[in-house]
């Protein structure tokens, strides 16, 4: 039987383990009233349990069944991590940045389309950034009609908090850049800082850090977003 380990009051981690005493069985993890299961098979020759790799489609079905207000991500293949709704400081920062688009999220503007908390598939992983933006080309924005979208964003923004700091900086940031995201912002509402990262030689590299309203646009320079409102009281 697998276990559910809470992380703070808003996060959890699901993992699957097989029991050695079954010929054929299912490992089940209960998450906020939801049962998520993964099969495993017994290897009679070796006398051991071989854990079956859980397919993305199975995890996606489980994420769709999560209770309202709970978001699921697959940061590591085969594992669902859940998040409850963010706190007030997080919501204020996200709102300030979103309204800084000068337009409506989800509607093309100045060659871009921006979305909030959209599910994006990266191979066997599923990430839900606080904000994501795509620089549009002749293909338009029809890719947004599919959930989860599989088109890699041009820009991603994560608003970090004490409970998400390690995950956003050390796990999701390098993953975004390795998957082809051009620019990643990490916004810290407590420190009132925006950090900007790109990939250099396969590693995240900080190229800008704003602790006050920036005098010039932060990368990507053509992004139709004004972060000045983030510093407003």
Q: CATH topology of the largest domain, which one?
A: tt1808, chain A
Instruction: Write the element-wise H/E pattern from the N-terminal end onward.
Output: EEEEEHEEHEEEEEHEEE
Gyration radius, rounded: 20 Å
**What helical percentage do the residues reach?**
10-25%
Number of helices: 3
What's the CATH class of the largest domain, please? Alpha Beta
Looking at this structure, what is the CATH superfamily of the largest domain? tt1808, chain A
What is the total number of structural domains? 2
Q: Span between N and C termini?
A: 49 Å
CATH architecture of the largest domain: Alpha-Beta Complex
Overall mean confidence score, pLDDT: 77
The main sheet orders its strands as 8-11-12-13-14-15
Principal-axis shape equals: globular
Major β-sheet profile: 6 strands, mixed
Q: Give unreliable regions as ranges.
A: 1-49
Total number of strands? 15
Report strand %: 25-35%
**Structural category:** alpha+beta
Characteristic key phrases:
233 residues, alpha+beta, tt1808, chain A, six-stranded mixed sheet, four-stranded antiparallel sheet, 3 helices, 15% helix, disordered N terminus
């Amino acid at each position: 039987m697998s276990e559910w380990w809470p992380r703070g009051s808003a996060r959890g981690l699901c993992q699957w383990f097989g029991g050695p005493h079954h010929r054929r069985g299912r490992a089940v993890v209960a998450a906020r009233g939801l049962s998520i299961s993964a099969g495993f098979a017994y290897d009679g020759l070796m006398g051991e349990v071989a854990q079956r790799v859980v397919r993305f489609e199975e995890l996606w079905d489980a994420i769709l069944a999560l209770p309202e207000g709970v978001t699921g991500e697959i940061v590591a293949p085969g594992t669902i991590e859940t998040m409850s709704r963010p706190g007030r400081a997080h919501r204020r920062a996200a709102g300030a940045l979103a309204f800084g688009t000068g337009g409506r999220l989800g509607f093309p503007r100045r060659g871009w389309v921006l979305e909030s908390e959209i599910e994006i598939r990266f191979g066997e992983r599923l990430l839900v950034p606080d904000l994501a933006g795509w620089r549009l080309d002749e293909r338009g924005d029809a890719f947004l009609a599919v959930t989860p979208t599989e088109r890699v964003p041009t820009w991603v923004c994560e608003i970090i908090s004490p409970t998400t700091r390690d995950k956003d900086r050390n796990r999701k940031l390098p993953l975004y850049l390795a998957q082809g995201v051009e620019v990643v912002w990490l916004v810290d509402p407590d420190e009132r800082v925006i950090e900007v990262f790109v990939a250099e030689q396969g590693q995240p590299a900080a190229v800008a850090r704003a602790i006050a309203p920036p005098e010039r646009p932060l990368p990507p320079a053509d992004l139709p977003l004004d972060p000045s409102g983030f510093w407003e009281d």
